[in-house]
Write a structure and sequence with these properties.
alpha+beta; TATA-Binding Protein; five-stranded antiparallel β-sheet; 5 strands; about 40% helix; about 30% strand
Length: about 100
């Protein structure tokens, strides 16, 4: 699923991080792909990935279908586009099950 985002990549990441914590989920990490790319002397549009989830929700799924562990915890990517817009994308949980059966 890909959607157009309102606000900057940083705004989108901040809003998601707040929502994750408000829902009692675990925020595992925020990966700053574009920041690391710049440190390597390369260029990449602003791109960050928020990694989050819940052991209570994910464990039963992984017990049933162990290969789902490749897609958990959930990840949501926020990035800029060549047209100057911003978007976010993530795999839908229902697709995780289909991908492993």
């Amino acid at each position: 699923m890909t959607k157009t985002a309102k606000g900057s990549v940083n705004d989108t990441v901040a809003k998601l991080s707040e929502l994750v914590e408000a829902r009692g989920l675990k925020l595992f990490a925020i990966v700053n792909h574009s920041g690391e790319t710049r440190r390597a002397g390369l260029e990449l549009r602003d791109t960050k990935v928020v990694i989050f989830g819940s052991s209570e929700a994910g464990t039963p799924v992984m017990q049933s279908v162990p290969l789902v562990a490749l897609d958990l915890p959930l990840k949501r990517c926020s990035s800029g586009t060549t047209a100057g817009r911003r978007r976010w994308a993530m795999r839908l949980p229902v697709l995780l099950r289909r991908a492993t059966t």
